[in-house]
Give the backbone structure.
Amino acid sequence: MVRDVAVVGAGHNGLICAAYLARAGLDVVVLEARDTVGGCASTVDVLGARVNVCNCDHISIRSTPILEELDLARHGLRYLDVDPAQLSLLWNGGRPWFLFHDVERTLDALRLAHPTEVDGYRRYVRQAVPVVRLLLEGALGLPTRSRLAALAVRHPAAATRLARWSRASACDVLGSFFGEESLIAPAGVVGPAIWGVSPALRGTGLGALGYALRHAVRVGRPAGGSGALATAVAAALAAAGGSVRTGRSVEAIRVDRDCVRGVTLAGGEAVDARAVAGACDPRRALVEWLREPPPAMAGVVARWRAAPRGDGYQSKVDARGA
């Protein structure tokens, strides 16, 4: 049996990709090495409790039509709004401050903790929120030059700021609004640090938009844990005729005459497919699994092979009360 598409990786991105393909009428199978779906969006049983593998604050996905288009509420997904959206404090002390979805409530909180930063924060919101809205609008369609140019024409001030900030460092952008480390450091931690780079590095300026994003979109957490999102998407995929096979570790992407033919699983099983979508570590897929890459991909594979391996960007401590 030859599938239309084999999706490698059953994290929420792979499942969403597969669900849309299945709804479009394609025969889709998702292959996942773990015994459960969800990837970093999983909720697992640890320490006698249900624990999210990674952060469970969902923001960007709530700005898209994915939840409605896949009818995820019908498949059991329910969000709990989180407000305040963030609590920030420094390791070495200082007064903590709350960020609320509502700008005025945030300014009230800053008046209590960091009164000298109130005017800067108000100016930050006026300039940064339109940039966030432009980015969110741009992400909801095909990134063609004509469409992006039309967006820039409709929002010239935000587009100019977006271009300027994208070339700056996050520290420089934040420093143009704030004077205290209590407001500069938290934005760096939830921005460039998550990307694995220093917020002082040029080109990280859009990492300064973290606060603005939380004013533009409500932070939510799925009832039952972050894994509830993956479970609901998997159900939507199944309803559209797609399937998920867990406990299936990929060892190779098969190519014949410059065309993808499918994947080979651990143990030698072949899954034939006309296309393979990698919703996993791209280095592993391109360098380790794609053993005979087509000539057109030689440059991409070489760049990934030469790229340094990162050690990760954060740590997480889970605790359970007695």
